[in-house]
Design brief:
The chain is mostly helical. It has two domains: 12-142; 144-271. It has helices spanning 2-10, 18-43, 48-69, 74-94, 103-110, 112-137, 146-172, 180-200, 205-228, 235-242, 244-273. Helix 10 crosses helix 11. The longest helix is centred in the last third of the chain and has 30 residues, at 244-273. The termini are far apart.
C-alpha cells in the first residue's frame, strides 16, 4: 500500500495539483451557473421553488469545494455529482433540439454573453469531474517540466479560443452541416479534451499528447473545410459579418491548434525515439568443485 502511494506521487497526473484544478474549475462553474440562473429568472423561465433549489445546490457545491481544499474525500463525490448534474441539465435544456430554449435561439434573443456563459459552463463541469477522480488518489502532487507547462499554456488558450469561435458561429450559423446545438456541443467536447490533454502531458506524456493531437485535428480539419476550402466562409466574410475581432479569434484558434499539434508530435516523436539500453545478463553462478 505504501509503495503504491509513493508511486502515485512519483507520476502525478497533472501539471497543476488536482486539488487546485477541482477548486478553480468548480468556482468557475458555480459563477457561470449563477449568471445563467439570473438570465433564466429575467426571461421568466425559472419559478421561485426552483430558484431556491438552484441557490441551495450552489451553496452546497461551494462548501464542498472548501472541504475538498481541506482534504475531505466525501466532498469530492458531492461536488462531482453536482457538477455532472449541472452539465446534464444544461445539455438537455439548451444543447439538444426541443429543449427549454435552444442555444442558437438563446444567442439571438439574449445575446452572445448568455451563450458564452453556457459554452464555458459545460467544460468547467467536465474538467472538474475528471480532476476529482485524480484528486481522490493524489490531491497535491504535480508533475514538473517545460513540456507540460507549454502544453498546458497552449491547451488553455486553445480551449478558450475554440469556445469563443463557437459562440461567434452561433449567430452566423457557421457550423456547416451541423446544427447550432450540435456544433456547440462538439466545440465543448473538443475544448474539454484539449485542456485535459494539456493538463495530463506533464505526468502522462503519451496520454496527454494523444488527447491534444485528437483535439487539434478536430479543430484544424473543420477550420480548413469551413474557412479555407472553396465555398467556405472566409475570414474576410467573418470580419464583415461579425467584426474584425471575431475574425482574429478564428485565425488565432487555428494558429494555436497548429502550434499545439506540432509541439505534441515533436514531443511524442522524441519520446518514442529514445531507446532504452538493453540490460546486461546476470553472470552465471560459479560451480563448486567436488
Amino acid at each position: 500500500m505504501k509503495a503504491a502511494y509513493q508511486h502515485s506521487h512519483a507520476r502525478p497526473a497533472f501539471a497543476i495539483p488536482a486539488r487546485t484544478v477541482v477548486v478553480f474549475s468548480g468556482l468557475v462553474a458555480i459563477a457561470l451557473g449563477l449568471l445563467h440562473l439570473v438570465d433564466e429568472v429575467q426571461r421568466g423561465e425559472t419559478r421561485a421553488p426552483l430558484i431556491w433549489v438552484a441557490v441551495l445546490l450552489a451553496g452546497v457545491w461551494l462548501l464542498s469545494l472548501f472541504l475538498i481544499w481541506r482534504g475531505n474525500r466525501v466532498a469530492l463525490l458531492v461536488a462531482g455529482t453536482i457538477a455532472f448534474a449541472e452539465f446534464a441539465t444544461q445539455g438537455l435544456n439548451h444543447f439538444v433540439s426541443g429543449g427549454s430554449i435552444d442555444l442558437g435561439a438563446l444567442a439571438r434573443t439574449r445575446g452572445l454573453p448568455a451563450a458564452i456563459a453556457l459554452l464555458f459552463l459545460g467544460p468547467s463541469c467536465l474538467i472538474m469531474c475528471v480532476a476529482a477522480m485524480d484528486c481522490a488518489a493524489n490531491p497535491r502532487g504535480r508533475a514538473t517540466g517545460w513540456r507540460g507547462l507549454i502544453a498546458l499554456g497552449l491547451s488553455a488558450a486553445g480551449g478558450t479560443l475554440v469556445l469563443l469561435h463557437a459562440a461567434d458561429d452561433l449567430h452566423r450559423s457557421g457550423f456547416g452541416s451541423l446544427g447550432a446545438e450540435d456544433g456547440a456541443f462538439v466545440a465543448m467536447v473538443i475544448a474539454t479534451v484539449w485542456v485535459l490533454g494539456g493538463l495530463s502531458t506533464a505526468g502522462h506524456l503519451r496520454r496527454g499528447t494523444f488527447f491534444v493531437i485528437a483535439a487539434t485535428l478536430f479543430v484544424l480539419i473543420p477550420f480548413y473545410n469551413l474557412h479555407l476550402a472553396s465555398g467556405g466562409v472566409s475570414l474576410g466574410k467573418i470580419a464583415s459579418e461579425s467584426g474584425m475581432a471575431w475574425a482574429l479569434v478564428a485565425a488565432a484558434t487555428a494558429v494555436c491548434a497548429g502550434l499545439a499539434l506540432a509541439f505534441s508530435l515533436l514531443v511524442l516523436g522524441l519520446q518514442l525515439s529514445v531507446r532504452r539500453r538493453p540490460q546486461g545478463k546476470a553472470p552465471a553462478p560459479a560451480l563448486k568443485k567436488a
